[in-house]
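TA notes. Do not distribute before section.
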Amino acid sequence: MECKVLILDEPTSSLDDHEVEKLFTLMRQLKEKGVAIVFVTHFLEQVYAVCDRITVLRNGKLVGEYPIEELPRVRLVAAMMGKDFDDLAAVKTEQAKDFSKEPLFIDAKGLSHKGKIKPFDLQIHKGEVVGLTGLLGSGRSELARVIYGADKNQTGELKVAGKEVKINAPIDAMNLGMGLLPDDRKAEGIIGDLSVRENIILALQAKRGIFKLLPMSKQIEIADKYIELLQIKTANRETLIKQLSGGNQQR
């Protein structure tokens, strides 16, 4: 590779562990040949595995630059979040709560979508956080899409709050109080040629229907509220969302 500086922008976001290690091996080989590398990532463990120096950015501003050996992980998290180290150090791990006695909100049995995910069972209680993990292609996203109706369920049954339901499309899930934040932001999470305001109110307008348009004053109120709440960096609410940075689009 004939270059002096190599910029890698989130290169590991869609790689499994084995592929990540192959990439790191190549990066180390290039480093030995004198190639300078800028490695952009959200994965902290990968930063410590392959980097010599860390530059922390927050909301488009430089927070600081640190030699890797001088920045423990907890201090890195504090810098990224804009929190004092003492505040994070004071956080105590809460004892795990037993949710088995809480009302069952999602009760899925034998749901599947041919060619994407085999039949699965899943239970989620009120107030419970259930983590799904696995390598790329293991079916994590597909499972969520089947429950939400983005991919039509073909077998089994689904109960929501104790009642058997049929979710044929995302609007059915929305009417049951569900929301989905997709992993592919640009393809499924936003409409690039619409404004920030239009993207913010899009799901709410879809739920109301095309014949019950939100008044412009209400759209502006909602958009301004979430621009401030989520600290979205935009020139104004009418800026096309495709003109925002990736992080601000995701917010």
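Switch to the second chain here.
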Amino acid sequence: MVDRFDDALLSVQDTARHLDIPDRTLQRWLHHESAAGSPLVHGVQPVKRGWPSIPFVAIVEAYVLRSLRGYLSMPKIREAAEALRLAFGDEYGLATQRIATDGVDIFVEYADGDLACARDGQRPIREVITDYLRYIAWESGDQYPYRLRLRQYPDVAPVIIDPRFGWGAPVVAENKVQVDAIVSLWEAGESLETVADEYGLTRDQVEAICRTARRRAA
């Protein structure tokens, strides 16, 4: 069974790509410490240079912080993360189930400018954070998440990161087939219909997955 805290699933580059975060931003989150001495995102030591160093809980931490970009400055993000961890009494507070309730209030409190309305035509920060958090799944009785749905993939073909499947690689929620396998077969020249038959999906699902994955790789 994969340990959500200690087993490295993805590289920094792959995590940044899947979460739509610049590599350098994620690197800063992994190395910038709060006043309490904890990094914003809890990576682990890779077995070898360039190997995976991001466990599942860290993927979720980075995803939560992603929702704050454009609303809070880097110093404010650090302050808000530290306040949240202190309030929850949990070093991994950014990934706990309480983030979906009490955590939203803490982040809004630290937002720049008007707390109810975002600047420059952006949606209100509370609305944005709440929308992000609905893609995280927790099981009853477990305060830490077990699955993250990737927001960029449409509802017709939900794609998830679940450490129980594919060792953290994005998989189709419906049948747990790795997205890379689907895209590779299509890029090899197979038709959408053939790929759909191969993996038990519809043509529309395969098209949505391949188009989205191609945009992410561009």
